[in-house]
Design brief:
The complex is a heterodimer of chains A (about 190) and B (about 190). With about 190 residues, chain A is an alpha+beta fold. Chain A has three helices and twelve strands. An eight-stranded antiparallel beta barrel of chain A has the order 1-4-5-7-9-10-11-12. The radius of gyration of chain A is 18 Å and the shape is elongated. The chains are: A alpha+beta (about 190), B mainly alpha (about 190).
């Protein structure tokens, strides 16, 4: 299959390949984020209790027919609702936003599953790149004149895989390693 | 002897008393050192243990109160003056009230800060109030004031127990200590006169 072969190549190749496929094969649009109706949050375990945080600024580009999914997060836009905790999380031991202001996920493989899609590709967070697989659902809403879609899902990441927690913060008894990332994104066809 | 009598406390009441006394001491150490520690994993761990033990204390005090109401209660010594009886009753009532108010204020305080409380990383307790920094700062002051009041009430409680034991030579302290038999009543009566 053409798309499967195209998707296996490296990132720059993928972007070109995906663009080619999109133009050649389908009229399906590229969707981008409608921030006002979208959320990107995470749940982490602090002292045995579930705590939440969010990112306020991020961008999403999704083209289901071309197999494109790119998410770029402005790491300086994180918020966990507590000023003191935010200061620690933004600092060198965690997000280190001064040195790593952006996180990025790009699907290199987008597989249709029974319930939706599975996007697999490199996630770069705090300068560490790891391949992750993220399941999500994609539901078209809106009207023929104002098409839109909802991209929903969640995935569990291990914070230590990305160096989130240096020194004393590597211990996981009081700050769990598993972090659940939730996303509820409202997308609409990109304006031309 | 499980149940209380009008002469002495039963074993469950005695064990609850001393276990709660021990936990109050541990709580004071964890609370003060937790506040003093710099922001870090040790502070997180210390305050998490403080919260878990506080919730444990709350449960133990409620069990103790329940046990108290379904049991006979040893009478206060007969030789007490009227104001001493009033003071004894007031101090005991204050101790129970403080031992409920302290953990509850701590629980509310943590919730108001936006940090849900977990009991030993096993059970997450519900947030009884939502995040509210003004309320948090108020509750910090309440929690500290209650802790200081508890320290004063405990000082009075311990001083009274020692007075009963070493000055009045009665059974007030002995009857709370597991395994200590009451003194011979006639002998203690002789000592007093």
């Amino acid at each position: 299959m053409l798309s499967a072969r195209a998707l296996r190549v490296t990132l720059p190749g993928l972007i070109l390949g995906a663009a080619t496929i999109a133009h050649a094969a389908t009229p399906s649009p590229t969707y981008t984020l409608r921030p006002a109706h979208s959320s990107l949050t995470y749940t982490f375990t602090q002292a045995g209790a579930a705590n939440q945080g969010q990112f306020k600024r991020f961008s999403v580009r999704f083209d289901p027919s071309a197999g494109t999914l790119v998410v770029v997060i402005d790491m300086r836009s994180f918020d966990t609702g507590d000023a003191q905790r935010n200061e620690v999380l933004g600092g060198a031991d965690f997000f280190d936003v001064a040195h790593y202001p952006q996180a990025r996920f790009q699907a290199t493989r987008l597989r249709k599953t029974a319930g939706g899609y599975l996007a697999t590709g490199p996630l770069t967070l705090r300068g560490v790149t790891r391949v992750v697989s993220v399941p999500f659902t994609w539901r078209l809403i809106g009207t023929p004149t104002h098409p839109a879609g909802l991209l929903d899902g969640q995935t569990v990441l291990k914070r230590l895989d990305f160096g989130l927690g240096q020194g004393q913060w590597r211990a996981t008894e009081w700050l769990g390693n598993a972090v659940t990332v939730h996303f509820a994104l409202r997308l609409a066809p990109a304006a031309h | 002897m499980l149940r209380n009598t009008t002469a002495r406390w039963g074993t469950p009441a005695q064990l609850l008393h001393w276990l709660i006394a021990l936990l109050i001491g541990v709580q004071a150490i964890l609370g003060v050192s937790g506040v003093a520690l710099p922001l870090g994993m040790a502070k997180l761990a210390t305050l998490a243990r403080h919260k878990s033990l506080g919730i444990t204390l709350l449960a133990l005090v409620l069990v103790r109160l329940l046990w108290r109401v379904v049991n006979p209660r040893p009478a206060l010594p007969e030789n007490l003056k009227r104001y001493e009886r009033t003071l004894a009753r007031a101090t005991h009532a204050a101790l129970y009230a403080l031992l409920i108010a302290l953990p509850v204020s701590g629980w509310l305080m943590s919730a108001a800060r936006g940090f849900p409380v977990s009991w030993f990383n096993l059970v997450q307790l519900p947030n009884l109030v939502s995040r509210n920094l003004a309320l948090y700062h108020l509750l910090v002051r309440v929690h500290v004031a209650l802790a200081i009041t508890l320290a004063l009430a405990l000082a009075l409680h311990v001083a009274a127990a020692l007075k009963h034991h070493f000055v009045l030579h009665d059974d007030t302290l002995r009857r709370m200590v597991p395994g200590w038999a009451p003194r011979d009543r006639d002998a203690s009566a002789l000592n007093k006169d």
